[in-house]
Amino acid sequence: MKRMGMIFRAKANKALDRAEDPRETLDYSYQKQLELLQKVRRGVADVATSRKRLELQLNELQKKSSTYEDQGRKALALGREDLAREALSRRAALQQQVTDLETQHTQLQGEEEKLTLASQRLQAKVDAFRTKKETIKATYTAAQAQTQIGEAFSGISEEMGDVGMAIQRAEDKTEQLRARAGALDELMASGALDDPSGLAKDDLQAELDRLSGGSDVELELQRMKAELAGGSSGSTPAIEGGQSGQSGQGAQGQPQDRPRFDKQ
């Protein structure tokens, strides 16, 4: 089970590596830093708002304190020491509140300065990260494009290799067919491939053979007629070629018997 779990985690990690885009990760990190910087700025704004509210309260208390002091002087001038004492008592109470508010104001002012300094430092870090992020993204994009171009060239090289092999095979087959055709032409010209049945002869040879064969038949027919005529008359050894049209008659114009070819 441990091994299966390790294999599963390894495959999942590999799948995540393939799915992860560093540019998206950098953009996400930059977005988170901007959110953190925004929170710090809101904190600075909240502290500044509190400090400003204390300043307004201090101003109001200081105005009241001044008013009580003026009232005490007027009461003493009129001989009303009791009123003067009451005014000064109220002024003293306000003065304690003023002291407390001044202490809080000083603390808030210190916190505001710290947060402002932290915000400035964080802003500088975010700006530096943004510059580095864009540089890394540009470098990654260039490397990715270069890789894709290299893979494309590799694919083209493999494809061209296959095409080159196909062209080489086609050229080899073409040369082989040309060599075979040349050899057949030479054999045909030398007569080594003449067809005994006469089917492979050209038209001129066929015509010559036909004329030659016809002449042999006519000569054989004349010879046979001459032999038959010689056997019947006993005096004429041969018949001239000009009397071939009278082969069916004797020397005196009498019809002769038809020759019997079974004896020839």
UniProtKB/TrEMBL annotation:
Residues annotated as coiled-coil are 44-111
The record, for Pfam families, names:
PspA_IM30
List, alphabetically, the InterPro entries matched. PspA_VIPP1
User: Residue spans with biased composition (Gly residues)?
Assistant: 242-251
**Is the keyword Coiled coil assigned to this protein?**
yes
The record's keywords, sorted A to Z, are: Coiled coil
Question: Per the record, which residues fall in region Disordered?
Answer: 225-264
Claim: Iron is one of the keywords in the record? no
Family, similarity comment: Belongs to the PspA/Vipp/IM30 family.
Q: What is this protein called?
A: Phage shock protein A (PspA) family protein
What is the species of this protein? Actinacidiphila yanglinensis
